[in-house]
Amino acid sequence: MLPSKDITRLIEIMAALRDKDTGCPWDIEQNFESIAPYTIEEAYEVADAIERNDMDELRDELGDLLLQVVYHSRIAEEIGQFKFGDVVEAVTRKMIRRHPHVFGDEEARRQGLPKGMWETIKAEEKAEKEAARAARGEEPRVKSEGYLDGIPLAQPALTRALKLQQKAARVGFDWGAAEPILDKIEEEIGELRAAMAEGQQDAVAAELGDLFFSVVNLGRHLELDSETSLRLTNDKFRDRFHFIERELKSKGRSVEEANLDEMEALWAMAKGRV
């Protein structure tokens, strides 16, 4: 079998890997649940390649992410649920429907996308899915009708906080500017100090969460993504710590042998360099 730019070849490869008689034992054993962590990991690796502006890596990582879509689709096909083509059809239908200002008639394109239309369309899609499930005799999957229920639980906490805030802001539940949020952050720090003084771990955890949520809100108003900002800080911390390691190694020492005072002195040097 030869490589190809045609998506059909990738689908054929996955089918061969999953073949019960001649496929790969590891691939045959996998299911939706076992593959899901890899799907999330591949999405992060795509983001990492973008952040590093590495186009070769981005091409490869996008391929790995596409493989995950094909993988899940193949498992679904094997149990008689849907095929890869159904996935493509579903997303193309969704994109066309959600962009009447691009794909609609002349009047729809002229009007643009009215305020609230995006949420209206998504609500219609949700209702149609529930109606289809009811027609098949299935129990409704969505028990609550809350406005924020559509934000996936499986997202990273910082990302989910941002999505919750963005959606709430669409109906006017939002701060008017960034500056008052700084006051809110200081308030949350005070509440965190009080919880720490009381020694109630559950209260400390709750107040720490409130602080994180407020910081995400500040980032949103500053038009900064908290997840991205934190990744940059993580990288900065890693680079500075690597500097400490290199300096200690040049003196024949390791981080395990160094004391905190030594490392803090080197950290101060690293801040001026990295």
Automatic annotation (TrEMBL):
One MF annotation (Gene Ontology) recorded for this entry: nucleoside triphosphate diphosphatase activity
Entry EC number(s): 3.6.1.9
Residue ranges annotated for the NTP pyrophosphohydrolase MazG-like domain, each copy included: 30-103, 181-240
InterPro entries cross-referenced by the UniProt entry: MazG-like_dom, NTP-PPase_MazG-like_C, NTP-PPase_MazG-like_N, NTP_PyrPHydrolase_MazG
Domain of life: Bacteria
SUPFAM superfamilies with a match to the protein in the record: all-alpha NTP pyrophosphatases (SSF101386)
Coiled-coil residue windows: none
Keyword terms of this UniProt record: Hydrolase
UniProt keyword Hydrolase present: yes
Protein name per its UniProtKB record: Nucleoside triphosphate pyrophosphohydrolase
